Model the fold of this input.
Amino acid sequence: MRSSALVVPLLAIGWLQAQSGPDTDWAFRPMRTVAVPTVANAEWNGGAIDRVVYARLQQAGITPNPRADRRTLLRRASFVLTGLPPTPAELDAFVADPSPDAFAEVVDRLLASVHHAEHQARHWLDLARYSDSNGLDENLAFANGGRYRDWVVQAHATDLPFDRFVRMQIAGDLLADDPAVGLDGHVATGFLALGPRMLAEQDKEKLVLDTVDEQIDLVGRTFLGLTLGCARCHDHKFDPISQRDYYALAGIFRSTKSFRELGHVSQWFDRELATDAAIAARKAAETARDATQADLQQATTRALDALRHELVAHTGNYLLAGGELLAQGTFLQAEAATATNLHADDRHWGSAECVVLHTHQGGPQFAEWRVQVATGGRQHLMVRCASAESRPMRVSIDGAVAIAETLGVETGGWMPVNQQWHDAGTFELAAGEHVLRLDGLAASIPHLDALLLTPVQPVADVGLVPPVVRQFAAVLGAMDRHPLVAFWHEATRGAADGFAARTAALQGKGGLAALLLGGLPPASPRELAARYQTLFASAAAAAGAATAARKDKSKDDKKPVRLDEPSLEQARALLFDHGGLLAFADAQLRPFLPAATLAELDTLQRDLDGKRAAVPERAPTAMCVVDDAVRDLPVHLRGNHLTLAADAVPRGVPAVFASLGGTPALPKNRSGRAEFAAWLCAPEQPLAARVQANRIWQRAFGHGLVRSPSNFGRRGDLPVHGDLLDLLAADFRADGWSQKRLWRRILLSRTWQQTSDCSEAQLQKDPENRLLGRQHRNRIPAEAIRDAMLAIAGDLDRTVGGSLLKTGDRGYVTNDQSNDGARYDAKRRSLYLPIIRNAMFDLFEAFDYADPSVHLEQRAQTSVAPQALWLLNAPFVAEQGKGLAARALALAGDAERIDFLWRECFVRVPSPAERAAASAWLATARANGDDAGAFAGLAAALFATNEFVHVD
Done:
């Protein structure tokens, strides 16, 4: 027997000699007009495909196989065209149809199905290296990548002419003004945008040129069947493509924008799916909204700054009022609870100075404190807590609910620095001892630090704001270790007539004593408060001056100001830091602004609300490319962008195509992608039609007429049936580039409808079946294996389109250990499952789904042990076995059930031997379980057979 390495060139010699010799560059020659022979065999003297094939088989002395039976044809056509198995009802209808056009009607039905569009789209996505994530250094989610996939499905569903299909993927953004293209033009350029990128590459010009290289390689392999990327560093070693040719193409793609920004981690380009006019209108509305929002923010800031300035100017009065209120109330550290299931934490979420109570175990969360009320009446509760999310609580007094829900606040974090005082509410209390209780309303509670219960009464000093008084009281209770607070307590606690003695005892200690008691000592707490007020005013003024001095001059201008003078810094921190005397959020202070100011702000707010409502909703976005600044590139010596030739190469196409005529003239003001895309399918350019006709033949038979479908160059496979390839390519063009018509022509040929049996004579003369004397037996791809199980189990969700990726756009879809965050448990067709670079779905990996980072011209068809192990052990297979078994158990007896399983899985009835084996299986399985488990095991075993995963 001749080796296949020798047989293939010998078989190809005849056609190549007609092309001017066996070593010619056949792919770069114009398409020939093929003289279709007439053959003596009437069964094969129909269409051009059969006559050409039969004539070559006669020359080789090979007898072709007979036509396959209807069951084989239906199953083959269903999987080839839709990736789904036929149903027994479809087989019954086909077998019962006596019309000579019965199979043609089957083919037409399958071609019209959206499942044909989905299955063919899956083939195309292999070529387009489709993925839902970037892979490489930063594996970020392409949350909008699915729009391109859905567009490819739609293009196949409508039988979009292939020449337009090509043009839209390369230059759809430049065709968007065409109503027949519209916004789909932007989506289609996802073909160029979906490649893997080294987003963290810090040499940004290298990143851009690597992207250009990847796009050139993709376009060359996909549409021309040429490895153009090989010429980046030097002239192509085998094909007539020079390095200048490469940089002529590179100029086109370098004049194309693929990145929105080139920051530390660069961002791929995307755009709204709206017209330019609609986007401009939205941006104008957003500008108007933002201007009004800025006006409102500035007015609010001015008003609140004035209010805070006013509060600082009266800190002495607030200090006196707060101290007086604290003396009448009850201050409690949270950890002093008399009963609780919370955890007192002074290390992780708390500290030695700020011990917090937080959730420690499951179940209801609570804490109780005993409080003594001297005088009955209305009481106000304040709680100091921290929470990064809303975790409301309930307040009870002596077992009765006093406040149904409160403290559902967010303070920005869980740590002591995030602790803030909050008004929990008011309630009535009689004099005496009570039990105050807080209960969590959610699974967890805020981190509790302190509580302050004070009587509700008019403030003595006219003009003081009650919540500010309460805040001063709370801070004086909670921050008693702060030097300024501790000094205040030491001087003011005790009898009024002992104030002079206490201050005299403090004099001479230096530090705060010298600052606050120096000179003529204060005669009363009110005079001491006035000195505090002077200190606070100085600290506020110094902080304001420091903030203004560094504004816009430092990258750290968002960090809090720190004053150098210790006493001023202590005062500033006590006033304004988290938990301080005047550490109020804007919303807390706003109600206390003057009425005229509130009216002005309300007017601005209504204006802003109107302008917000007038902003159109932002349209969805799609990954795409657009034209960038036009540039011609010089040759990069050895492919290095740092070593450039002297002169730029004009943008254009490889010179080898000049002999075919009609090379495009590229505009000076645009990238030239539109002209390049149109040239790819121009009448004088033969490769695009040849390459795509060969790909469809490959999908129909399992092997192309050229078995290196993305390399038609000198190192690619020699076409044994080159005349047939040219015939198909010419018909493809003549039929308006209709892929469905080409599919129909191939499937209705006698050649395609042969059996896959291989005789000894065929094996000797044509071991690889290059002359097509039989059909190929092929394993169905990974997606079809999964989809077939779902369909037969009655569990397939046939919804078309949409994304199953849960990660947000540009979110990390895998972590540093490449753990996959995607989910694969949906019942949708496998086409819609996430494709994650660096972390593929295990089913896809087992059944030859190759690296989605690269153009995949044809999947391998391996038969290895891990595939059988997956089919026999995967929970998914067991689950679908249960689904199919449930359908079988609806029938009356074992014989009917066994027949049902075989008809569903194989579209045939079992043989007597298979029936006997199935009955024996069931008998053994029932000894260890019930009917449901036995039939589920049998169904899963059928899923694992060669017959299930192969098509004859």
